[in-house]
User: Fold this.
Amino acid sequence: MNKKIFKSICFATLTVFIATLILIMGALTSYFTNSQKRQLKNETDLAAQGVLLNGKEFFEGLNKKTDYRITWVNADGSVIYDNEADPEKMENHLERAEIKQALENGYGESARYSSTLSEKLLYSARRLPDGTVLRLSFAQSTIWTLLMGFAAPICGVAMLAIVMSLCLATSLSKRIIEPINTLNLDEPMKNDVYEELEPLMKRIDVQQKQLKADRAALEKTEQIRQEFTANVSHELKTPLQAISGYAELIKAGIVKPEDIKPFAEKIYSESHRLSTLVEDIIDLTKLDNGGYGYQWEEADLYRIAENVIDSLEAEAETQHVKLNLEGNSTKLYGVPQLLHSIVYNLCDNAIKYNHENGEVNITLAKDTDRIVLTVSDTGIGIPKECSDRIFERFYRVDKSRSKEVGGTGLGLSIVKHAALIMNADVSLDSKEGKGSTFTISFPERN
Ligand code: ADP
Assistant:
């Protein structure tokens, strides 16, 4: 950039110099031409007076080495006198522009380039009272000869201009670049820099803030991931340790025969818990990948709820909880597998955290362009301070109760992520000891 500015300044300075030179030379040439024309006219008038007074004798007293060419022409164009050539050998001058004008108007002038083109001839002609015409001509330098004459001073000035433009370009480019080189890009808005750079500084500032936010989000995600990995290891370890502990006791033969059945039941329930946990982890990992690979189609949420009720019926009966479904066939565009997961986890929790002889009510309703699913129970409810945290992975209000009822601590996390993928809103209304209502509002069309 420094080089570019330097070159631009040099180029601009030299262009201005050359343009100025051309303009000055043009103005000088026109000034000289006009003053020479005026001078030639005066000289012609003076010579005309001399010829009028002294006739041909006037020419005899003239200095032959004059810069002017003097020609005296008859009214018919024949030459009477010429100070440079033999009048007898000269051609008729009647067609010469200045002679023609002088014969017609009393005075005429013209300019013609000489055959070498290195000089221009100015002609001035005056008609005398006897009808003859006296003409004076003068060789004027062309612009090129004028330039050649000025060559030395022009070269001097040009050298000076080049040196000056180089010095100017060096110091200017340094001064322009310096504030840019010392920009504080960490805090762009604190720079007191050119007005033209303000939009760029603003953009950098926005990008910096975005970058900081992205970094914070990334750190948060990484922290969540690390916590999740630690929790997964811990959650897997607990049932595995229980299974291997019971198996080891049986293997060692120190378990009484009547205790073998309860031990086997423990092993069975722990391994069942383990496989549910692994399934939930797999589901969550898939959801974490942004939901790619899921099959989107039109699904009937009512039918899905019916299926969920069928598969949870036995569990509900064991817990003495009644399951009710309200609503009609309700179709929406979504991922059937995720819809099932949402309804299943909500209903499963509503049974698990219910009182004996409690109820679970599942309702489906249409609200303009949204489908609203509510799962409410008459269970233990959720304390207000935990209502946000229950959607976190492995968060449980009452850890021992969750474990007792076979919870993994991942159900509501799956609900939240699955809802997010289908652009659904999740809300909770709960009263401790009275029950909870989870509401999921799906867009009909995604
Ligand atoms: P879990 O497998 O432990 O049920 P979830 O993620 O499904 O894990 O739920 C997280 C926690 O939220 C539960 O451990 C429980 O304490 C609380 N919870 C969830 N649903 C209900 C509900 N319907 N009633 C009362 N508490 C609930």
User: Anything to note?
Assistant: The first strand starts at residue 68 and ends at 73.
